[in-house]
Amino acid sequence: MSSEAAVRTRSPWVLLALAWVVPGLGHYLLGRRRTGLAFAAIVVVTFLAGISFQGRLYSVEPGQPLTILATFAVYGSGILNVAARLFSDNPGGAILSPTYEYGCAYLLTAGLMNLLLVLDTWDIATGKKR
Amino acid sequence: MIAIIPVDHFLIMTLYAVLVSAFFALLWREDRRERWKLFGTLMASLVLGGLAVAWLMYPFPR
């Protein structure tokens, strides 16, 4: 399906939501299939590396305003974040692990990457970007 | 994955640079050649920048 056809048949809001839930799906549905699959692979590998490095899936903590931003970033990963919280033994990460900080950076980056993909999907779907 | 990737600062940093460079090359460029060019630029900037910062921090271990 071409980009123009996708715009005609799907609401940009639906694409926005799908792009957030599943990394790369927005681009895939807009006809950029190889790019969408590549984006999905990059975000998934980044997120899984973050989990493997025992990073933290942030939640908002009272008195810690920066955790609001971190939580927003981690929730950007969509279904990956939800699945990891459901199935992870230790969503808070292992702060004593030598790779903890790396894990946090990878998890935050994966979420922020997907949020950029959501915005890019919106721009393509609304014709702001070719 | 932690068993596959050894706990090596340089390796973890390089993997991060590969992923971030590939992401932005795909996001910001459409042409294949331009993508490789941006990937190389970002990759070199991140890895060499990281090494430069590490070198500058070497006299200050704590």
Notes on the structure:
The complex is a heterodimer of chains A (130) and B (62). With 130 residues, chain A is mostly helical. Chain A has helices at residues 3-9, 12-21, 25-29, 33-52, 66-75, 79-87, 100-125. Chain A has one domain (3-125). In chain A, helix 2 (12-21) runs antiparallel to helix 7. Chain A is elongated. Chain B is mostly helical and 62 residues long. Helices cover 74% and strands 0% of the residues of chain B. Chain B contains two helices and no strands. Chain B has helices at residues 9-28, 32-57. The relative contact order of chain B is 0.13. The A-B interface holds A 35, 38-39, 42-43, 45-46, 48-49, 52-54, 98-99, 102, 105-106, 109, 113, 116-117, 120 and B 1-2, 5, 7, 12, 15-16, 19-20, 22-23, 26-27.
Give the quaternary arrangement of the chains: heterodimer
The amount of helix of chain B comes to: over 70%
Shape of chain B: elongated
Distance N terminus to C terminus of chain A?
15 Å
**Share in helix of chain A:** 55-70%
CA radius of gyration of chain A? 16 Å
Distance between termini of chain B?
30 Å
Q: How would you concisely characterize the structure shown here?
A:
The complex is a heterodimer of chains A (130) and B (62). With 130 residues, chain A is mainly alpha-helical.
Please tag this protein with its features.
heterodimer; A: 130 residues; mainly alpha; 7 helices; 67% helix; B: 62 residues; 2 helices; elongated
Summarize the topology.
The complex is a heterodimer of chains A (130) and B (62).
Chain A: H1 3-9, H2 12-21, H3 25-29, H4 33-52, H5 66-75, H6 79-87, H7 100-125
Chain B: H1 9-28, H2 32-57
Helix pairs in contact in B: 1-2
